[in-house]
């Protein structure tokens, strides 16, 4: 995720916890606090809080799923040659050792 100033200039990158999607974002131009939802194929939607003034991100709300440990699995992004001019992209899921 990229953070931009109000004038549009890029300020920094925020590293996301895994390959996934930002589902919602809430912020105010008058505040340095941002809340966003993040989910992936192995992580249910969690809410994160970012304080842009000190460049910190932390989990604000995370559901617990009994018996499931997302850290046991890895998701990797791959690109493969295709017959057309575009390359084909896919994801693979593996259990970590």
UniProtKB/TrEMBL annotation:
InterPro entries referenced in this protein's UniProt entry, alphabetically: Pept_S9A_N (IPR023302)
Pfam families: Peptidase_S9_N (PF02897)
Gene Ontology MF, one: serine-type endopeptidase activity
Residues in Peptidase S9A N-terminal domain copies: 10-59
Protein name: Peptidase S9A N-terminal domain-containing protein
């Amino acid at each position: 995720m990229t953070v931009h100033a109000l004038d549009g200039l890029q300020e920094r990158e925020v590293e996301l916890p895994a390959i996934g999607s930002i589902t919602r974002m809430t912020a105010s131009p008058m505040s340095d606090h941002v809340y966003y939802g993040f989910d992936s194929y192995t992580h249910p939607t969690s809410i994160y809080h970012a304080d842009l003034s000190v460049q910190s991100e932390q989990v604000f709300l995370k559901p617990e799923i009994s018996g499931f440990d997302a850290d046991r699995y890895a998701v990797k992004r791959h690109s493969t040659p295709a017959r057309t001019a575009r390359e084909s992209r896919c994801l693979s899921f593996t259990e970590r050792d």
